[in-house]
Design a protein that fits this description.
With 185 residues, the chain is α+β, with helices and mostly antiparallel strands. It contains 5 helices and 7 strands.
């Protein structure tokens, strides 16, 4: 018997019990109902009807879907790249030093001079548009990167708030390499 068949049989048994219970109207006390025990066996249970024929008040719409969990699509390359970029920017905004970030995220290499040199304290950022751009590696093989437009809000060493737009190029790992995040301006 499959899982769905067992669940439908169980649902049919519950439905039969509910029908038996709801048919009893005698009350011995105001707060309790006098109910005779109804014996339901698989042979006396209603036939296994499609879920659409089960009364609406007894139907459990999630029953048929429970055995087939929704499949999760693999994240796109742009989504993965954005997640890595956000991890780095969140660490900077949280106050982690660049060295702490390297220790906690050995799979990501960030080339952000403002963070490395401790020139600014990041207090916020907004990731804007992104696109995939192709390029040729030093060995002549074609590759690509995801380019993000990011607006950073930070305080400089004098304590002044500064907003600056930057472009971050995110390179996904090829083989054994790590993710690389490079700012270009």
């Amino acid at each position: 018997m499959t899982t769905i068949s067992r669940r439908r049989t169980t649902l049919a048994l519950y439905a039969a019990v509910l029908v038996a219970i709801s048919g009893c109207n005698e009350l011995s006390q105001p707060e309790t109902a006098k109910v005779e025990r109804a014996e339901v066996t698989p042979s006396s249970a209603p036939s296994l009807a499609p879920a659409s024929s089960v009364p609406e008040n007894l139907a459990i719409p999630e029953l048929d879907r429970a055995s087939d969990p929704p499949s999760k699509a693999e994240p796109t390359r742009q989504e993965l790249a954005e997640a890595k970029l956000r991890i780095a920017l969140d660490s900077w905004a949280f106050g982690d030093s660049y060295e702490e970030f390297e220790g906690n995220h050995p799979d990501v290499m960030v080339f952000e001079l403002d963070w490395r040199a401790h020139r600014y304290t990041l207090i916020g950022y907004e990731v804007g548009q992104s696109r995939i751009e192709g390029f040729t590696k030093d060995d002549g093989t074609p590759s690509s990167m995801v380019v993000f437009a990011v607006t950073l809000t930070y305080t400089n060493m004098a304590g002044q708030e500064v907003k600056r737009k930057k472009q971050y190029n995110v390179y996904d790992p090829d083989g054994d390499e790590e993710w690389q995040i490079v700012t270009t301006n």
